[in-house]
Amino acid sequence: MSAEVENEECEYTDLFLEMAVDPAAPWERYQALVERGVVEKGEGKVLMASRAAVEAACRNPKVFAIDEAGLFMGNVRSFKPQGIDPPLQTKYRKILDPLFSPKKMDLLEADVAARVNQFIDAFIDRGECNFTEEFAIPFPSSVFLTIMGLPYDDLDLLLRFKDDILRPGSSQGELLTDPQERLQFQLNTGQEIYAYYEALLDERQISPQDDILTHLLHAEIDGDRLTREDILDVCFHFLLAGLDTVTDNLTCFFAFLVQHPDYRLQLIENPAIIPSAVEELLRWESVVPAGMRRATEDVEVLGCPIKAGTAVSLGWAPSNFDPAQFPDPLEVRFDRQPNRHFAFGAGVHRCLGSHLARRELRVTLREWHRRIPEYSLKPGSKLEYQSLMRSVENLMLVWPTG
Ligand code: HEM
Questions:
Q1: Which of 205, 242, 336, 398 lies at 20 to 30 Å from 176 by C-alpha?
Q2: CA gap 187, 164 in Å, rounded
Q3: Tens of pLDDT along 347-401?
Q4: How much is the pLDDT for 269?
C-alpha cells in the first residue's frame, strides 16, 4: 500500500471547533447551540445541536450516511463498522456485539477490579499521583489490550500510534498544524498500524488464542470468512476507540470530583448510586463532541432544508444539554432518572464498547473511593483541559497517608 496525501483537511473540523471554544467549561456554548437546533455553518455544512435534530439524523442512516462522510484518519479504506452503513454495518455488529455484551462484561468484572486495585497499589502509599499518566491511561488500556490479544509490552507503541492519529505530531513534542503535514503523518502512522496488526494476525493464524484477534480470523459474514483487509479495518478503529475514550472520561470525571467534594461524598456514603452517577457524568462531560455524516439526498430537518452532499455533524455533546430532554440540564444530579444521554452516540452506530466502558468507569469509582475517599488537587498544579475529545492532561492528585 502506498501512503500518499490524497485527502483535504477534514471538512468537519470547524463544526467540531464550534463546540470546543472553552473545553474547561463548554456548557453555555452547548446550550446556545441547542437553542438554534440545526446550526448552518456556511455552504454545505450543518451541525445538528438539539436532541430532536440529532435524533432525526441518526435514526435515518440512509439519508445521513457515514460511508460518504470521509472518516479518514490514516486509514486507506473505511473503518468497519464505524465507517460503513447498513446493511453491511449491521452484519459486522452481529459478529462484534456478542464480544462486548453485558454478560461478557460480567465475566470481566473480577479482573477489571483486580487491575484497578493493582494500579492503585502502585501509588497509594506515596499520597499522590499523576492520575492521567499513572491510572487513566494504563488501566483501561490494559483491559483493552488483553481482550484484543495485544501484548501489554506494546502499550507505549500502541499509545504512540493512537496519539499520532488523533493528535498528529504530539508524540514528537509538537502538534502539527499544517493540514497536509497532518495528513501525511497520519497516513504514515496508518501504515505502521496495518503492519503491526498484520504480523500479529499471522501469529494468531498459526497459534489461535482466546482473544478478539483470533475471533475475527474465524468470523463469517454470509458464510464467508472476513478477508485480511476487513479484519484490519476493524482492528484499526478499535485501537482509536478502545485506547482513548475511557481514559478521557476518567480524567474528566476525576477533575469534576476533585473540584466537588459534595458529589464525592455522595459516592462514599452511598456506593449504590455509582451506576447512575456514571451516567450523569457521561452526560455532563460528553467527551466525544459529535459524529460525522453526509446527506445523501435533499431533505428537511426541523424546517431546515439540507442539500444532498452536505457535511452533517451530529452534536452528541450539545444534545445532552437540551432542556426538552433533560430538566435543569446545567445541574449535575447523580440520581437523574431517566437519563437517556447520547454520550455513546445513538442509532445504528451506537457505541460497541459502551458496556465495557461503563464497567470500567463504575468499578473505578467504587474501588477508588473505597480506598482513597479524600483527595485534592496537588497545590501548584492546574487543570489542563484539552479540546475536541475533552480530557485533562497531567491531573495531579494528593491525599492523606498513614
Ligand atoms: C466512555 C467511553 C466511550 C465513549 C464516550 C464512546 C463514544 C462513542 C460514540 C459517541 C460512538 C458513535 C460514533 C458515531 O455514531 O459516529 C461510538 C462508536 C463506537 N465505539 Fe465507542 N465510546 C467509548 C468506548 C469505547 C470502547 C472501550 C470501545 C472498544 C471497543 C468502543 C468502540 C466503538 C466502536 C467500534 C464504535 C463504532 C460502532 C459502529 O459504527 O457500529 N468505544 N463510541
A1: 242
A2: 10
A3: 999 999 999 999 999 999 999 999 999 999 999 999 999 887 899 999 999 999 9
A4: 97
Number of C-beta neighbours around residue 305 at 10 A: 11
Cell numbers of 102, please? 453485558
Instruction: Say which residues have a Cβ less than 8 Å from residue 195's Cβ, sequence separation at least 6.
Output: none
- What atom of ligand 1 comes closest to residue 291's alpha carbon? 16
Q: How far is the CA of 178 from the centre of ligand 1 (A)?
A: 28
- Which of 286, 314, 303, 300 lies closest to 388, judged by CA? 286
Fill in the amino acid letter for 374: E
Give the pLDDT of residue 68. Answer: 82
C-alpha 25 to ligand 1 mean position (Å): 23
ω into 81 cis (within 30 of 0):
yes
Q: Is 399 helix (H, G, I), strand (E, B) or coil?
A: coil
Segment 351-363, tens digit of pLDDT: 999 999 999 999 9
pLDDT of residue 7: 44
The reply to whether ligand 1 has any atom less than 6 angstroms from the CB of 236 is: no
Looking at domain 13-398, its CATH class is mainly alpha
Q: How far apart are CA 141 and CA 75, in angstroms?
A: 21
Q: Whose CA is nearest to atom 26 of ligand 1?
A: 353
Is there an atom of ligand 1 within 6 Å of 93 CB?
Answer: yes
- Residues of the chain whose pLDDT is less than 50? 1-9
Residue 346 alpha carbon, nearest atom of ligand 1: 15
Closest by CA to 250, choosing from 102, 380, 121, 138, is 138
Q: What is the distance between the terminal CA atoms of the chain, rounded to a whole angstrom?
A: 58
CA distance 51 to 321: 8
Question: Is 287 near ligand 1, meaning CB less than 6 Å away?
Answer: yes
For the whole model, what pTM was predicted?
A: 0.95
The reported pLDDT for the residue numbered 22 is 87
